[in-house]
Structure formats: C-alpha cells, structure tokens
Amino acid sequence: MSGRLEGVGAWVLYCVTAAMMIFILAPLLVVMSVSVSDSYFVTFPPQGFTLSWYAKVLQDRDFLDALQLSAVLAFSTTMGSLLLGVPAAFALVRGSFLGQSFLKSLVLSPLVFPALVTGLALLQLLSSFGSGDARLNLLIGHIVVTAPYVVRTVVSSLQLMDINLEEAARTLGASRMKTFWRVTLPQIAPGVAAGSLFAFMVSFDNYPISMWLANSEYSPVPLVLMRQLVNVFDPSVPAMSTIIILLAVVGVLILERLVGLRRAVAI
Amino acid sequence: MTDVAQTTAQAPGDLDERSPWRLTLSVGFLALPMLAFLSIFFFYPAANLLFYSFLSQDAKGIIGRPFTLSHYVHIAEIDLYLRVFWNTLQIAFVTSIVAIVMAYPVAIVMVKSNAIVNRVISLIVIAPLIVSVVVRAYGWQLILVNTPTGLLNWLLLTLHIINEPLELLYTKTAVVIGSLHVFFPMMVLPLASALGKIDPNLEDAARMLGAPWWKVFARVTLPLSIPGLVAGFTLVFSLTAGSFVIPVLLGGTSSTMLGNLIEQQIFVVYDWPFGATIAVVLVIVVFAINALSMRILEGRRFRRIAS
C-alpha cells in the first residue's frame, strides 16, 4: 500500500492519528511535568519548579536497592533467555524432525498464557519446593516469559539469513565452530540483539510475575512503585516514574539504533 | 550413508560421516534445554494449578481430596464472582473494539506516509510499551482525578466545557482508557503489517472506478486486513482480560477484574483451590478467544482455496 492519502478522508486520518499520538504521550508527559512541581500534592496547573524530589529519590535506599535488583535481575534474565532461546531457535529453523511445528508452539506458549497465571502457578511450585530465595524465584519466572521473545526474534533472523554463505565457508574449509562464529552469528546478530534488549526490558518492567514471587526484602522497581501508590502516597513517586520513563527512552533509542524498532518488536 | 555425505560436499575431515538426517536430528536436540526448563517451570506448574482447582480445602486449611467441582459451581452461583467475570469480558471487549477503531487510522497513516513520519509514529507507538504499566496507570490517575485539580477536569473547567468536575477515575471507563493506552501498540503493529501487504493497485483500481474513500475502505482495505485485525484483537483482548495493575489503580470496586480476584484469594483469603479455579477460568477465556480467532483465519483460507 503506497498510494498517497488525499481528500477529506486523509484529513480525518491525520487528525485521528495526531489525537492518538497525544493520547499516548499525555500520561507520560504529565508525570514528567509533575515531577518538577513544587507542591506536596499534585495539582493542575503545576506550581513552582524544583528538583528536590529527584534529590530525595536519589537518596532513597529502598528505591535504589530496587533499581539495582531490577537491573541485575533483568541482566541475568537476558543471559538465561539467550542460553535457552538461541539454541532452541536453531533447532526450530535448522532441524527437521517430527513434531517440529508442535515444538514451536510449545516453546512460544508462555507468550499467549496470561502472565498472572504463569506467576501464580510458579509460586505454587516453588513454595512446595520450599525455595526461599526470592531472587532465584524471580529469575526463573522472568526467564519463562522472556525466553520465548528471544526464540521469536532469532527464528525470524535465521529464516532471513542466506544459508549458502555457511555452505560456502564450510566448502572453503572453515570448521563448524568457525563457521558459526564468523558467518552465522554476524548474520543473526540483529535478531539476537533485539531479543536480548526486549528480554531485558520485559524483565525490567514485569509486574504480573514479580507480584507473586517477590518478597518484602527483594522487590523490583514496579512493585516498589505500586506499593508507594497504593499504600502510602509518597510525593516523590512522579520523580521515580520519570526516572523509569527516561530509562525506557534510552532503551528505545538503543533498540532503534541497533536493529530498528519494528523488527525488534516483531508482533 | 557415506554416499549422501560425499554428495553434499561437507568440509574435509570434519563430521563427514554424518548423514544430513542425523545432522538435522541432532540440531533438534538444541531445543531440549529450553523444553526441559519450560516443562519444569511452566507446563508442570500450569497443569498442577488446574489439578488444584479440583481439590478441596478443609477447615484447618489443609488442601487435598476429595475431588470436587464445587469451586466452579461457586463462581457460577455467586453474584459477586459472576459480576467480576462479566466485568472482565466487558472491559476486554470494549477495549479491543475501541482499539480497532482508533488503530486503523494510525496504521493507515503509518503505511502510507514517508519514512520520517512512519518512523516518528512507530517510535511514539512503541516507546511507551517499554515504560512500566504502573507508571502509565499512574499518569492516567493524574489526568483523570475527580477533583477540579485533576488535569482533564481542570482543562475542561477552564475552557468552560463543563461546570462540574467529571467523575472519571475509579470507573470502568478509566480502566478501558488505561488498558487502551497500554495495549494499543498490540493492535497497531499487526494491523500496520497486514495493511503493508495489500497491493496498492487494488485500492487505486477501486478509486479509479469511482468508489468514494469510505467504500474503498469497506470493500477493499478492511477485508484484506482481516488477518492483522484478528491478530490484534486477540492480543488486546487476552492481555486486557489478564490485567491486574490497571484495575487496581484506575478502577473502583465496580470494575474489579479476574486478576484482582485471584490475587485476593491467594494473598488475603489464602484459598488456593478457589484462586486456582479463577485462574483456570481466566485461562479458558484467553484460550477461547485464541481458538476463535484461529478458526476465523482458517475459515478465510478455506474459502479462498474453494473460490
């Protein structure tokens, strides 16, 4: 579809699109503008300007601990997802065996399952094992939901890649390992990168798995934020939220530079 | 066996004796670690949860036999639970429909405009996907607050569009707005990729033959974009039905959803079998929508082959 948009219809389309863009950005911009407002309670129009909430947040031990936990968790989750997901993607694209398409739907099934229920089921299992380390439980839960993303992006890269190049390398005498590192990996690198970044961000923002597996000692950022919102309203919440938004913007820009957004999301 | 290996001209001295069959099978083993991981931490616990929903819990809180269907009957009989069930379906359905209506213009503009506009729209649509749902729901709380100092009320009052502040927050409308915001990309992206595959000549032909723009849309664009539409609908419906954070932060007691009920049963009431039962109901809802959309898509393919 490359035809130009013209006439009344086009204006309607542009207006609705512009309105939706405002709709999408509004809550984020509101949070950001409130985060530098001077009053204890959020009111419109915002009053005064201050960075004191940021100063407060950056000294808030709970928030900093949560930020650190989330970062370490997201990083380990990404590594775990790569270890499981990349080989699985190879099996799905390069192998040919009975039940391959069934295997694919099995491996991707956590993506269609309500994450809330995945977390609950896992809580039940882990508590019957008596596994008390919340960090390990969170890691397991996050890998369950992020590894399928890695499989999906790596599968699509493998399908796009030119297999003749591998054969050429092998014919010219490169070993299997060398072919993988020098020919295959560079070609699927965008898929691996997209999958990793996506896994990282899904883990960093995850709520429905973490809500079951975290405890008061180890709570990732979204849970800490939720607790502040529901229980005791803390006026530094807008500043915390803004920090999260800014981290996401950085993540998106990296993703866009490395692989292109549309490809990364691959819905 | 050696014949095959030689004709496929593998590299010298390295695994030449392997037939392609053995090679492709051994590649298949690479899926084993993930399969094992998911079996232990996903399939088994999910099956176990289903099993739990048939167990009973005695007065001392010990869970075990006899097997019973009473929890399912419980959901169907008690008004409160039934209402939560219908709320969930209603919120998920309305959100998906609004998402479809709003996503078409955005997806069409995305597909038909130049690279820069396309990129900007993609960025705006996708970027919030990566911001925590808690932050986004909080943003909507600030906008929808019911007092005159909430953003929307303040704007509308200042512009003299309304005289009394609106009661928006803690209603189903607020939950739909929040869900729409969070899951909108899941509708736009599949729709844009389906629209991108439509041959522009078809629309040009319709236009040249004198069809007005709305007719071109209804007779050419819409039918050809059904796969994207169905995929988007399924995603948005499933994800909205499984919400937890949005109804907590934006909904009131009248817009409790299945997810909230599950959390209550587990963390407040400690009724594991009943919590498991509600979880199974939620999974059934999601699976039913997925199965339905699969049938629609397959039905289309059959008709195309038949015609």
The tally of domains of chain B stands at 1
Can you tell me the CATH architecture of chain B? Orthogonal Bundle
Question: What number is the mean pLDDT of chain A?
Answer: 86
Shape designation of chain B: globular
Question: What is the CATH class designation of chain B?
Answer: Mainly Alpha
Radius of gyration of chain B: 26 Å
Residues in helices of chain A, as a percent range: over 70%
Order of helices and strands of chain B: HHHEEHHHHHHHHHHHH
Largest interface by Cβ-Cβ < 8 Å = A-B, 97 and 102 residues
CATH architecture of the domain at 73-216 and 244-265 in chain A: Orthogonal Bundle
Strand content of chain A: under 5%
Q: What is the C-level CATH assignment of the domain at 73-216 and 244-265 in chain A?
A: Mainly Alpha
Strand order of the largest sheet of chain B: 1-2
Rounded mean pLDDT of chain B is 85
Tell me the major beta sheet of chain A: none
Q: What is the rounded Rg of chain A?
A: 23 Å
Low-confidence stretches of chain A: none
User: Looking at CATH, which topology of chain B would you report?
Assistant: MetI-like fold
Describe this structure in words.
The complex is a heterodimer of chains A (267) and B (307). Chain A has 267 residues and is mainly α. Chain A has a domain at 73-216 and 244-265: Orthogonal Bundle (MetI-like fold). Chain A contains 12 helices and no strands. In chain A, helix 8 runs antiparallel to helix 11 (237-258). Chain B has 307 residues and is an all-alpha fold. Chain B has a single domain, classed as MetI-like fold, CATH 1.10.3720. Helix content of chain B is 73%, strand content 1%. Chain B has 15 helices and 2 strands. Chain B has helices at residues 2-7, 20-28, 32-52, 70-77, 79-112, 115-126, 133-144, 151-158, 172-196, 200-208, 213-224, 226-241, 245-250, 258-269, 272-306; strands at 56-57, 63-64. In chain B, strands 1-2 form a two-stranded antiparallel ribbon. In chain B, helix 5 (79-112) packs antiparallel against helix 6, helix 5 runs antiparallel to helix 12 and helix 14 runs antiparallel to helix 15 (272-306). Chain B is globular. At the A-B interface, helix 1, helix 3, helix 4, helix 5 and helix 6 of A face helix 2, helix 3, helix 5, helix 6 and helix 7 of B.
